Each structure stands twice: as structure tokens, then as C-alpha cells.
């Protein structure tokens, strides 16, 4: 099988079974090429909605309570009525998985927009129906080549926003600033963008959370302007539980360049090593032993 976009932190191995997957749209199922939403949908018109990425591993929805809590918190913050309670929404996910006969190795993208509008504008009072709910479940495995080589990052000129500008804890459909940061990185020959906060401290990447090792200490940002990453929380937990120190505090690019190792976290990729940043090798310039240990700890945690 061939990895798709093999240099991306979101790369995965192509699985021919996905050609026959049917997509959930508002309770009904459609072949991939027939699954559609209206051009008047608030999600299409201006990214008015929230989403979650969830993994199915050996018949278990990984950290499902945390994912659903995050989804509902985001929906409440924008006054979006999903139309289901938490248990009902999880039941719809299982409905989609059972319809497609899925039991393991699946990545689920649940997308919820405010719904159909009478005209394409910003005002939420022009909604004419309930929320639009789309569930895309696919067999996806992270690209193993990337785990072996590590990512190349580039520091973007685009900053992560503070909550008074846009709260990154909100898993919003609107991602244009992160796409711009990623385009900068791609144009400079990197795989993903490293992003700073408004103070100039390291915050996160454009689609993942960022960590470094200095000695046995695991460093990550203070969390003020980074994604509310569930995998990030798990990485912090397993390193602490193993008896090591985790430092959640501001740090600079200078400290990153002198790190022993670095990695990023995300729902699909789990733990993905970083080999270089801004053309500078991190440590030995390849995945190192501490990142390997973190990967083993995280894997044991999710399979336990």
C-alpha cells in the first residue's frame, strides 16, 4: 500500500476498502461520490461549525467521552444546537461504523455545521433547519515511513491566536490561518509549520501539538494558545506516570534548537517524531530513543 501525502503529519496508508465506504449525512448513508451538503449550508458558506477526529481501535472508540465533551463544549460556545445529547450522538457514530462493518483501524471525522441557511450570509438567525451532521469513517493507518524518518518543520510567520482573538480550544471548521501557515512551510520544503504565540514563545504546529525533550524532561507549551489536544493530554500523562518530569511552560525557539529530540501529537498519527526545524537537525536529526519510549508508553496506554 502507498502512503498518501507521505511527508505530511496527517499522511496515511491508502486502503482500497475505503472506496466502498458509505458516508453518513443527517442519518442517511451515501456512496462517497454521492455524499453532499447544500451550497447554502453554514459550514460551506463560512466554516460555521465544529468537528472531531476519533479513532476506533479493536472495537473501542478511543477517549470517546473526552472527544464528545470537547465537541459539545465547542458547540455550546457558538450556540449551535446539535440536535442530539451526548449518548445519542455516540450512538450515531456506532450506527455509521456498523453500517460499514468496521471494527478496528478506523479514523472517524465527525463534522457538524449550523445547518441550512436561507441565503449565504454570516448571521446565524438566517438558519432554516437543524444542524448538518456528517460522519466520515475510513480505514486509516499512519504512514510508517514518517515514523522512521521524522518530520521537517518550519517556523511560520503566522502566530497562534489568543482567546480574545480566536480560542484555539474551539475545534472550529475555520482553519484558514493554519492552512496559510502550512502553505508557508510546504513552500519552504518542510512538512508542517511550527507556530509561535503572540509573545514569541513556541505554541503548536498547524495541525498538531508540539513537544521537545531536554534530557529526560518533556517540555510543551503552557497551553494558553495551543489546541486542546486529547493526544497531547495522554502524552503528558503517560510520561508523568512513568516517573519522569513534564514541564508545561513557555519556551523559545533557541531552546527548541538545542533540544535532544522533538515530536508532535495528533489523533491519527499519535506520536510522530520531528527530525529538523528551520533546516536545523534536532538532536541527531532522526527519531531518537526518548521519542521511541514515548511511543511505546502511548501505545500501551491506548491498547490497555
Structure, described:
Helix 6 links the parallel strand 13 and strand 14. The mean pLDDT is 95. The strands form three sheets. Strands 9, 10, 11, 12, 13, 14, 15, 16 and 17 form a nine-stranded mixed beta sheet that branches. Helix content is 27%, strand content 27%. Helix 6 packs across helix 8. It folds into two domains: 137 residues, D-amino Acid Aminotransferase, Chain A, domain 1, CATH 3.30.470.10; 160 residues, D-amino Acid Aminotransferase, Chain A, domain 2, CATH 3.20.10.10. It is globular and about 55 Å long. The chain has 304 residues and is of the alpha+beta class. The longest helix is centred in the C-terminal third of the chain and has 15 residues. It contains eight helices and 17 strands. 38% of the residues are buried.
Name the descriptors:
alpha+beta; six-stranded antiparallel sheet; D-amino Acid Aminotransferase, Chain A, domain 1; D-amino Acid Aminotransferase, Chain A, domain 2; single chain; 8 helices; 2 domains; 27% helix; nine-stranded mixed sheet; 304 residues
